[in-house]
Amino acid sequence: MTAPAPVAVRMTGISKSFGGIRALDGVDFEVFAGEVHALLGGNGAGKSTILKVLNGVHVPDEGEIEVAGQRLATPSPEAARAAGIAMNFQEMSLVPTLTVAQNIFLTREARDARGMIDDAESVRRAQALFDMLQVQVDPTALVGDLGAGQKQLTEIAKAISQKAQVLILDEPSTALSVSDVERLFSFLRQLKAKGVAIIYVSHRMDEIARIADRATILRDGKHVITAPLADLPIDVMIEHIVGKKSKGLADVARGDVARGESLLELRNVTGPHKPENVSFALHRGEVLGLAGLLGSGRSALARVIAGIEPSVHGEIRIKGAKVEIRRPADAIAHGIALVPEARATQGIIPAHSVADNMVMSVISRIAPKGFVNRARIAEIAEDMISRLSIKTASRDHAVSTLSGGNQQKVVIGKWLATEPEILILDEPTAGIDIGSKAEIIRLVRELAQSGKGVIVISSELSELLTACDRILVMADGRAHQMLDRAELDDPAERDPEHALQAAERRLQIEIQKALSIKEPSHG
Amino acid sequence: MAKATTAPAGGFFANWRQNIIYIGFVVIFLVFALTLNDKGFLNPNNLLNIVRQTAMIAVMAVAMTFVLSAGEIDLSVGAVAGLTTVTVAMAISVAGPLGGVLAGLATGLAVGMFNGWLTTRIGIPSFLTTLAMMGIAKGVAMWISDTAAVPILSPGYSWIFGGGSVGPIPVLMFWMALIAGIGHIALRRSGFGRKVLATGGGETAARYSGIDTRSIKFKVLVLSSCAAALAGMLYAGRLQSGRFQLGEGDELSVIAAAVLGGTSLFGGKGTVIGTIVGALMIGMINNGLILMGLEFSQQLIAKGAIIILAVALSQKKG
Questions:
Q1: Please, what are the domains in chain B?
Q2: Which of A149, A320, B13, B91 makes an SS bond possible with B103, Cβ 3.0 to 4.6 Å?
Q3: What is the number of other CB atoms lying within 10 angstroms of the CB of residue B309?
């Protein structure tokens, strides 16, 4: 940097805690005008927190924010907007009942001579924005009717329409097609040339390598490094991102399990939207991990197996016999249980007791004559509470009084009550403290040892590596590679913590590799 | 860019579910016109009577469209209208017509601000706030009037607020058109209306977009009570008295009118024109069923069935 560009954003010593957990710890962050600055870090590193601080949604406990040399005295979304900061919110800022154009210009509507809202003019302006981006979105369509990619383009257009001097794009490309990402990038280059500072968050290192000038990496709420991209090859980036955050998981013992018969086999299975043409087999006694980024088709695959989005092509076999899974009830009848991702909405009824939640999916079984057998409920609940060592004052306490980790155990217990042979866990440790994470992973290992087949989906690679025997790497809805967990280990490395980090780096590289393989049919 | 500029597919009839209220209005009108012609359904006086009987419901329903669009509800409108007839009548007897009008507006403002404060600051759902207010308003009206009718002896007031007519056109029709016009423009074309729709359509998204959703909810509840107060003033003028029973049960017709007109009970969606047609349709059904000679019990059943049918047809399937 011989000719220093003007500083667009300078954040110094930003700290922010949420209920005792320090999400940001004295972080410095500086972005120049006319650069694309990548912000990197694993889950929980503090990326979204620092962006929300910059955007005024969170007020920092300590630290100062300067935008274009001016100190932001009272952080608020309005102040940030006035200072020229715009951000996309990963579909959070779109109103489904309004049209695309109405959403883009919400609170900044085009007005006619009498000061009335002029929707026709907003439609024209929205169309001009999409033309500039060279993408096709209908400005008069209701946002609620759009697919994920179109919603994302609308979010981006909304951020761009504010003509901001600082544009924050938080994972803008997760739902975009390859060609749309390309167009977005060429547009970002134009903005950059006009002196706009762009902060770009993505988990896709290939994208970052193509678009970013500099990168800042955060880990555990702390600033790790800021450097030009030229000084950060992908393996170095990954090393900084991974760091030592795997502590607490490294000591979970992963005993060797004997693989039994094939419980579940997928042959060229294609879902209604994703996945595409996936084949694999899950054996009795093993834990299979699904790795990949958001939008890679991991959860979609789980939904196909569980009958929520039935497959459109290919065959599913259970213990060698071909089966039809058209509805969730079919899957349950075949001994498949899916513990879904969104615990609060899909997993539990928070106000109901632990016992009532546990028996929710087996009510008809324990109430054969229409009357619920209280003794049987108590029996199942006590059995699960001790089996999963759930910490609750009693089985009659509301689930909402439990910690996140114990709530998750209730969800798992609820599905174990159906006595499944195949258990699918989607992000089982999201929003849970590290101690409970290790406990859940131990539980997963125990379930496999007791003869079940378990599939685990997780964005936290250290977790997958700790829990799984084999890991399927997915990207763009396709299965790319089946990795044996042992392959990722370096036999020379003795320290379990280092070994786990090394394995995490390798897995990260495999995931990034899978992304760069372009499917010929695509785009 | 071929597809991008085209309008959403289909015309009026292709989107028939959205426009069911207008189609239904015409169909019911034709059925009544054909079957009840000999009983005077099409007589101009009868048609104007429908307007007279609908005006108060329509005025309240316009404001209710805003309340529902913002994702809230106001169950107190009928009782507030009743209370206002009493406060207006009592104020006129001591302070004249102008005092009466001011007292009526003050009643609406006070109740609305209290509803809004409880809902947005204390955090009680508007369903409960306004359910409680329904009882309170009626109780106050009974108490201060000693449950007796309070006569209004001001012909001027009565003419302007509901009793008068210009040629054959009742003044009530002007009030209805005025409120409908203001409401339509405010909801469709003003920043406030857009913020109301955004608040009800997705509160988080609206807040992230810089909309003060609490203030929007406060304002729609104030608006609703003020509209209820105006409806009360019209009842008082038309019947030249204030009585606590006036407006009783109107909240259900008001909500039904808005929902028939395509306003979503879950917020984010609503039109004032639809609401007005919905209100007229309810008035027309009432009138037609009476002309048919149905008993009150049968009228209630038929009215309920028609409303269920209309709303069911407007639901998107799947």
A1: 39-311 (1.10.3470)
A2: B91
A3: 12
